[in-house]
Write a structure and sequence with these properties.
Length: about 240
């Protein structure tokens, strides 16, 4: 789990990608942020929004039975929902067609796939698309030696034209990481509210799963298409 701060509309959110963590959350007494530092203000431990799913793996799209429980839990506690979605295969898109119809009206969907955006706009106009970190691109290589180097590769989302393009396509907000040497003004997107991931970020992505390759024969390692056994739920790189 990692905390997410909503910048434009002050809001505290909990990101939960692992089904076991979601099970524990919806079985608890109420929404809280137990993993925040001890000196975090007590008044700030309430969860306003829950992020579920993943921006990077379609195997982490929540199963329908668990999603229904999460929706009931969120409604009972006044917690808004955001479903994070990755770049998807045809199979992932078919699964999302079933999943999206169970989200309450007004829920956010973080989009990293233009096909998912088309699906939302065509079939689910009551849901709110948010541009994900795969669409709002930035150089986040931790090997960048200085702020000067970082300025040579400005993020796409800082462009007025890019922000206008996102708005024209129906996005109501954007999802960002804090890049190396970022300043507060580097997290501004003209005309759109911003959600900033705090505590975790991503540097690069691809279609192969390092964790899912651990138990495979050498000739099958680090190739796309294997099912995986959710090794990422128990290991941290």
């Amino acid at each position: 789990m990692s905390a997410v701060l909503e910048v434009a509309v002050p809001e505290q959110a909990l990101e939960c990608t692992r089904p076991r963590r979601l099970e524990a959350l919806v079985s608890g007494a109420g929404p809280s942020l137990p993993e925040l530092p001890g000196d975090w203000p007590a008044s700030g431990r309430h969860v306003d929004r829950l992020y579920l799913g993943s921006e990077f793996c379609e195997r982490l799209i929540p199963p329908l039975d668990l999603l229904r429980r999460v929706v009931n839990w969120a409604g009972a506690h006044g917690v808004a929902l955001t479903l994070a979605t990755p770049i998807v295969s045809d199979g992932g898109l078919r699964l999302l067609r079933r999943v999206l119809r169970h989200l309450p009206a007004g829920s956010e969907v973080v989009v990293n796939d233009w096909g998912v955006l088309h699906l939302l706009r065509r079939d689910h106009p009551n849901l709110r698309p948010v541009a994900g970190r795969g669409i709002c691109k930035a150089i986040k290589d931790p090997r960048l030696p200085s702020a000067t180097w970082a300025r040579l590769y400005p993020p796409s989302f800082g462009s007025t034209r890019h922000a206008a393009m996102l708005a024209r396509r129906g996005f109501v907000g954007v999802q960002l990481d804090i890049a190396p040497f970022a300043r507060p003004r580097d997290l501004h997107v003209p005309g759109l509210p911003v959600a900033v991931n705090v505590g975790h970020g991503y540097v690069t992505k691809g279609r192969t799963c390092r964790f899912g390759s651990f138990g495979l024969a050498p000739g099958r390692k680090f190739a796309p298409g294997h099912a995986g056994r959710f090794e990422c739920h128990d290991d941290v790189a």
